[in-house]
Design brief:
ABC transporter involved in vitamin B12 uptake, BtuC, 311 residues, 14 helices, two-stranded antiparallel ribbon, mainly alpha
Length: 311
């Protein structure tokens, strides 16, 4: 945690091109998304192909309340998180009774429905023309009106939410999640309320997505439905798998790698889904525990090699 905080604090001084400060702000925002999604997928073992929907709900609730109704951004973000949590609870109770491919298809449907609703309710959301005039965020009069200020603000939130996730993982709820992931039936017979735990983690991951969405909206100050489509949901899943399922820090690493990779393949935008699909296939086949898992194996291998040389 300390090392990540130090690296985040020193990174802006190492950047030669200030454009990459914007990139690392987006990495931070999506890291929040991925940390929440990793709780659901990596620890509870529940796949979601529609997590961009909760990201969109957070962004649009906060954006509409501030741009149209002139709410304070902090109050709007709080209402957005509560509204997103209620929506996740409503859809999660029936949806999480499904398993495997059926659950994946159901969450995919949720993502498509939310995106279409945003497009259709153009009188409120701006539809395909986009929602404009979203104000920025200030801290007791201190305006976060530069990329550098917003960068530090976002990464403080990343570290705080990551710390909360780590605390949750080692709590009773976290142990119940890992039990469900290992064997739903065994967890049930050990007294775990499987359905309740799954819904709780689903709602929590949606709240993380809502917070990320609010940050995105107040940073970009403009929203359009195309930013929250199926492609983003797939990209988030790739980030989780690439970094390492069941590894919080791996999720942040996955968000960084995919965003930086996206910058390099921006000339081939039309092939983006194909490239991310290939990455996902390769990771599942050859590195199922992701980069974090590979690093752990290498860390265990080095002492053995040293022992072999010593002997």
């Amino acid at each position: 945690m300390v090392l990540v905080a130090i690296a985040a604090a020193l990174l802006p001084k190492a950047l030669t091109n200030q454009y990459y400060l914007t990139v690392f702000i987006i990495i931070g925002i999506q890291a929040i998304l991925v940390v929440g999604l990793n709780l659901l997928m990596g620890y509870a073992g529940q796949i979601s192909l529609g997590h961009a929907a909760f990201y969109a709900l957070g962004a649009y609730f906060s954006g509409v309340l501030t741009a149209i109704h002139h709410w304070n951004p902090w109050s709007a973000a709080l209402v957005a998180a509560v509204a997103t949590a209620l929506m996740a609870l409503i859809v999660g109770i029936p949806t999480l009774k499904l398993e495997g491919h059926y659950l994946a298809m159901a969450t995919l449907g949720i993502g498509i429905i939310i995106q279409k609703l945003i497009e259709e309710f153009s009188g409120i959301t701006g539809g395909n023309n986009g929602l404009t005039n979203i104000p920025g965020i200030s801290l007791r009069g201190f305006e976060l009106n530069t990329d550098l200020r917003f960068y530090y603000f976002v990464w403080v939130i990343v570290i705080v939410l990551t710390a909360l996730s780590i605390h949750l993982i080692h709590s009773r709820v976290g142990r119940a999640c890992r039990a469900i992931h290992s064997s739903r039936l065994a967890a049930h017979h050990m007294g775990v309320n499987v359905q309740k735990i799954k819904v709780q983690i689903f709602v929590l991951s949606a709240v993380y997505a809502s917070i990320a969405g609010s940050l995105y909206g107040h940073y970009q100050r403009y929203l359009d439905p195309g930013s929250f489509g199926f492609g983003l949901s797939i990209q988030l899943v790739v980030m989780v798998v690439l970094g390492g399922l069941g590894n919080v820090w791996g999720g942040i690493l996955g968000a960084a790698i995919i965003n930086l990779l996206t910058e390099y393949i921006s000339k081939f935008t039309e092939y983006g889904p194909v490239i991310f699909g290939l990455i996902l296939i390769v990771m599942v086949l050859f590195m199922p525990k992701g980069i974090a898992g590979l690093a752990g194996r290498l860390g265990n291998l080095i002492p053995r090699l040293r022992e072999g040389k010593a002997s």
